[in-house]
Task: inverse folding
């Protein structure tokens, strides 16, 4: 779901960059405030692991593939601000070093995958009763992908409405993006839930480690 | 802690090297959700504003090497930033 250069109208990617950077600045501030010595390597490894997971596309329907975004996984382990910070870091390296996602689209990619993905996952997790932790994480992962893709479709539609040489008509963009990503989201839900269930068995101390001080946030243990 | 970081990193890289086999077996060269929508509408990819020095590679061993490089970059940059932020927090 990485947007490349030249796809969106300038006013859309500039607005996306401004909104995304505001959230990223807030996220880094919140993360820095709560940082503990033992969580530093843990957050770095999680970020690096999500980078690798994003490289591994899995097949869905009709020759299309999807890949893990990792926002829900990061939210379940670090809380929303930690998730936004590490997904942003991954997106910057993907764009600058590997050409995955355009530089001008970095703000929109951050907005869709890091900000909207993380906040959607966090909202679902917060609303889930504690006795339904794993199903809640599955729904959160699905919602992160679906709402991120819906945002991307809206950006495509707005770009096209501003200048038809950009984006795609909303009548096509919205159902296509939402339809495909409702299936890709199932893959995200399966992977995220499996990783959390696995960590709960082999390294339960890692769950919720980086959000102990985050009052009221989700404790996946 | 250092031992846990090394063991954790090796476990993730091992899982990636196995997952990459599956990727090349069933997903390589196939578009993702956004790319599928763009292809169906005949939207062509534009020239990137920035030419990245690396790409993910088109065969198993190149992709594995790129994965290791990317993993290392994300790990070092994240760790360096967070470590510096923690130190700064301590001096305040």
Result:
């Amino acid at each position: 779901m990485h947007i490349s250069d030249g796809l969106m109208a300038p006013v859309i990617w500039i607005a996306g960059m401004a909104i995304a950077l505001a959230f990223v600045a807030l996220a880094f501030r919140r993360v820095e405030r709560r940082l503990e010595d033992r969580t530093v390597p843990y957050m770095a490894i999680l970020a690096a692991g999500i980078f690798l997971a994003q490289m591994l596309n899995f097949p869905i329907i009709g020759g299309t593939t999807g890949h893990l975004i990792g926002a829900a996984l990061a939210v379940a382990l670090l809380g929303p601000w930690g998730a936004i910070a590490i997904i942003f870091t991954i997106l910057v390296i993907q764009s600058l070093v590997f050409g995955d996602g355009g530089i001008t689209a970095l703000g929109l990619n951050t907005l869709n995958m890091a900000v909207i993905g993380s906040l959607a996952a966090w909202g679902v997790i917060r609303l889930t009763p504690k006795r339904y932790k794993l199903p809640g994480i599955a729904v959160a992962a699905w919602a992160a992908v679906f709402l991120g893709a819906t945002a991307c479709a809206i950006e495509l539609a707005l770009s096209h409405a501003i200048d038809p040489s950009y984006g795609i008509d909303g009548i096509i963009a919205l159902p296509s993006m939402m339809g495909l990503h409702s299936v890709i989201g199932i893959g995200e839900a399966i992977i995220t839930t499996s990783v959390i269930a696995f960590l709960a068995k082999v390294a339960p101390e890692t769950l919720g480690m980086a959000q102990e001080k985050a009052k009221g946030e989700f404790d996946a243990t | 802690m250092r031992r846990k970081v090394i063991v954790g990193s090796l476990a993730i890289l091992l899982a990636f090297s196995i997952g990459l086999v599956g990727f090349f077996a069933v997903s390589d060269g196939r578009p993702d959700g956004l790319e599928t929508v763009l292809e169906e509408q005949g939207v062509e990819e534009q020239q990137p504003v920035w030419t990245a020095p690396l790409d993910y590679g088109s065969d198993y061993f190149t992709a594995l090497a790129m994965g290791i490089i990317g993993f290392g970059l994300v790990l070092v940059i994240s760790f360096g930033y967070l470590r510096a932020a923690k130190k700064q927090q301590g001096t305040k």
